[in-house]
Structures are given as structure tokens and as C-alpha cells.
């Protein structure tokens, strides 16, 4: 059974009573919507109390999700936004590749910017690097991390141990940390 409840600070919450639930639990969907599940033997009133007791935690979870998925509510970024990102990307990314190429001593071929959603970047057999314009939504340290990753592919065309050692070296031993951060973003 589904019920909607309007919380004074959290807004609309869907409360779902289901046999599959063993206890009260609250989840925040990628669009920021909040859903509360509870087993049928627990009264809705108790769920509302539970939400009230945990409202700070729920709000924090919602903010974390909003930070990671800035456009989760929209299915697609609109064309205008893509064009703006493309302009910013074209001004920023090739210059950044050049800067990092000089810093690391890893040389590459042509750099192109694409509206790729499935991956942040790629490196061809001819060492041409292609970067997603959606990188522009990432913090600069992650943009640099993606570029250095692709530059390391000019030496190793795989994700072998040697590749990771080289990458880790060029990011000051922070590969794991940066990878974990990058995983929180999607190429929306
Ligand atoms: Zn790779």
C-alpha cells in the first residue's frame, strides 16, 4: 500500500507498506525523492515518527546525492546546456592535456572533445585522446585524473599492473582515492 506524506522540511515522502520490509527504512532516490518502507504490522504513524527522528540524516543523504547527480531529475541535459559545456570543454580540455603532457612527459596525438556519456575519455592506438565534454561538471582534480589516465594509455594500452603503477606515480600515489571519487559521478 502506498501513501504520500508531506513532511514540513523534507517535502513529499512516499510511504510504502510491504511484506518484504522487515523494519522501517528510508531511501533517497537519485532525483531526491524520499521513500519510506515498512512492514504491514507497523503503523504509519510510527514511520512518520521515524522520519522525524532521522530527518537530519535523510537531508544529508539527499544533499550527497544532489552533489553527485546534479541532473538526476532530468533525463537528459538539454541541447543548450550541452553546447555551453562543449564551449567550456573546448577552451579548457585541450590546454589542460597539453599542460599535463608537459608535466608528466607523456606525449599524445590529437585531442578531441565529444558528447560521450558512457566514458570520460579514451585513447586510440595512434595515441589520440578523446574526452567527454561532461568532464566539465567534475572537480578539476578529477578532470586531471581522467586526462592523466588517458595519457598513461599512450604507454600501456591496457589496464595492467604496469599501467596502474605508472598512473599512480603520476597522481602522487592517489589513484585509489581519486578512482573512488570518480565513481561517484556519472557521465550525465
Ligand atoms: Zn583506461
Give an overview in words.
The chain has 188 residues and is an alpha/beta fold. It folds into 2 domains: 2-68, no CATH class; 79-183, Metalloproteases ("zincins"), catalytic domain (Zincin-like). The chain has 6 helices and 7 strands; from the N terminus they run ββββαααβββααα. It has helices at 44-53, 55-68, 79-104, 140-152, 161-170, 175-183; strands at 2-7, 11-17, 25-28, 34-38, 111-114, 121-123, 129-132. A 4-stranded mixed beta sheet has the order 1-2-4-3. Strands 5-7-6 form a 3-stranded mixed beta sheet, with helices on one face. Strand 3 (25-28) and strand 4 form a beta hairpin. The mean pLDDT is 89. Bound molecules: zinc ion. Zinc ion (ZN) is lined by residues 149, 153, 159. Residues 149, 153, 159 line the site of zinc ion (ZN).
Brief overview, please?
The protein is of the alpha/beta class and 188 residues long.
Task: Give the arrangement of secondary structure elements.
Layout: E1 2-7, E2 11-17, E3 25-28, E4 34-38, H1 44-53, H2 55-68, H3 79-104, E5 111-114, E6 121-123, E7 129-132, H4 140-152, H5 161-170, H6 175-183
Parallel strand pairs: 2-4, 5-7
Antiparallel strand pairs: 1-2, 3-4, 6-7
Bound molecules: zinc ion.
Order of helices and strands: EEEEHHHEEEHHH
DSSP strand content: 15-25%
CATH topology of the largest domain: Zincin-like
Give the low-pLDDT segments: none
CATH superfamily (homologous) name of the largest domain:
Metalloproteases ("zincins"), catalytic domain
Q: Which outline best applies? A: elongated
Based on secondary structure, the structural category is alpha/beta
Please give the share of residues in helix: 40-55%
Total of DSSP H or I helical runs spanning 4+ residues: 6
Q: Write out the strand line-up for the largest beta sheet, numbering strands in chain order.
A: 1-2-4-3
Please give the radius of gyration in angstroms. 22 Å
Main beta sheet, described? 4 strands, mixed
Distance between the termini: 33 Å
Q: What number of domains?
A: 2
Amino acid at each position: 500500500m502506498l501513501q504520500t506524506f508531506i513532511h514540513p522540511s523534507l517535502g513529499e515522502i512516499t510511504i510504502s507498506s510491504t511484506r518484504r520490509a522487515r523494519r522501517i527504512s528510508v531511501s533517497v532516490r537519485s532525483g531526491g525523492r524520499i521513500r519510506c518502507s515498512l512492514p504491514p504490522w507497523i503503523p504509519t504513524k510510527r514511520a512518520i515518527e521515524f522520519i522525524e527522528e532521522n530527518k537530519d540524516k535523510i537531508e544529508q543523504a539527499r544533499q550527497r546525492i544532489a552533489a553527485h547527480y546534479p541532473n538526476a531529475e532530468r533525463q537528459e541535459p538539454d541541447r543548450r546546456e550541452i553546447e555551453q559545456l562543449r564551449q567550456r570543454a573546448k577552451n579548457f580540455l585541450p590546454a589542460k592535456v597539453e599542460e599535463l603532457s608537459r608535466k608528466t612527459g607523456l606525449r599524445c596525438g590529437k585531442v578531441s572533445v565529444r558528447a560521450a556519456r558512457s566514458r570520460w575519455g579514451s585513447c586510440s592506438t595512434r595515441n589520440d585522446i578523446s574526452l567527454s565534454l561532461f568532464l566539465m561538471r567534475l572537480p578539476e582534480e578529477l578532470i586531471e585524473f581522467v586526462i592523466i589516465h588517458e595519457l598513461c594509455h599512450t604507454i600501456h594500452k591496457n589496464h595492467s599492473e604496469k599501467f596502474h603503477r605508472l598512473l599512480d606515480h603520476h597522481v602522487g600515489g592517489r589513484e585509489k582515492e581519486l578512482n573512488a571519487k570518480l565513481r561517484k559521478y556519472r557521465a550525465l
